[in-house]
């Protein structure tokens, strides 16, 4: 599985050393025992600009099974990651958003102020994560439990889908 990461943050774009969420997410992916063989990109760091987010998502969907974003999901005027994501996805995945939000709300009531989005474009799953490194860890705990199976389903990999379903019963 090939996973791309985009950090969306004006401050991290100006000073890449400020990006903590992207590297945390990359490390979590690389250390996960639930994802199998994974190739993960170094985080692409871009500012909170809708057109640039949209263009980056479109480009990364062409060569990755999963694109994970971190940042730009709050209520601030420049937080436009969900809008950019919604403009490129073809099928929404509200169950993923609900799962991530439920986990986040266990940690803090401020999670109610997130506007995560998730969906499928072609054969690529796109998931928005919060910009806070702690929230990224919390969301990834949930995401890693079903991410591989989601990719199997999207790719219509029937052999692996059947195998996974048998393991569940």
From TrEMBL:
Give the EC number(s) under which this enzyme is classified.
2.10.1.1
- Entry-linked InterPro entries: MoaB/Mog-like_dom_sf, MoaB/Mog_dom, MoCF_biosynth_CS, MPT_Adenylyltrnsfr/MoaC-Rel
For this protein, the record's Gene3D superfamilies field holds: MoaB/Mog-like domain
Which Gene Ontology BP annotations are present?
Answer: Mo-molybdopterin cofactor biosynthetic process
**Residue ranges of every copy of the MoaB/Mog domain listed in the record:** 4-150
* Pathway note: Cofactor biosynthesis; molybdopterin biosynthesis
Pfam families for the chain: MoCF_biosynth (PF00994)
Q: Which GO terms describe its molecular function?
A: molybdopterin molybdotransferase activity
Q: Which PROSITE patterns match?
A: MOCF_BIOSYNTHESIS_1
Which domain of life, per UniProt?
Eukaryota
Q: Which PANTHER family match?
A: MOLYBDENUM COFACTOR BIOSYNTHESIS (PTHR43764), MOLYBDOPTERIN MOLYBDOTRANSFERASE (PTHR43764:SF1)
Similarity comment: family membership: In the N-terminal section; belongs to the MoaB/Mog family.
The family database entries (NCBIfam families) matched by this protein are listed as: molyb_syn (TIGR00177)
Protein name as catalogued = molybdopterin molybdotransferase
Species source reads: Steinernema glaseri
């Amino acid at each position: 599985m090939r996973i791309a990461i985009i950090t969306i943050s004006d401050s991290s774009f100006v000073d890449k050393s400020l990006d903590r969420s992207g590297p945390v997410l990359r490390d979590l992916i690389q250390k996960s025992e639930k994802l199998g063989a994974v190739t993960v990109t170094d985080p692409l760091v871009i500012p909170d600009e809708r057109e640039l987010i949209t263009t980056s998502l479109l480009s990364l969907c062409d060569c990755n099974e999963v694109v994970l974003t971190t940042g730009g999901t709050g209520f601030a005027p420049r937080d436009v990651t969900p809008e950019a994501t919604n403009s490129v996805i073809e099928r929404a995945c509200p169950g993923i958003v609900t799962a991530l939000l439920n986990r986040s709300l266990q940690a803090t009531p401020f999670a109610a102020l997130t506007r995560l989005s998730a969906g499928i474009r072609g054969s690529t799953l796109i998931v928005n994560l919060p910009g806070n490194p702690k929230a990224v860890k919390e969301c990834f705990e949930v995401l890693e439990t079903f991410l591989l199976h989601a990719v199997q389903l999207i790719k219509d990999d029937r052999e692996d889908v059947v195998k996974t379903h048998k393991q569940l019963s």
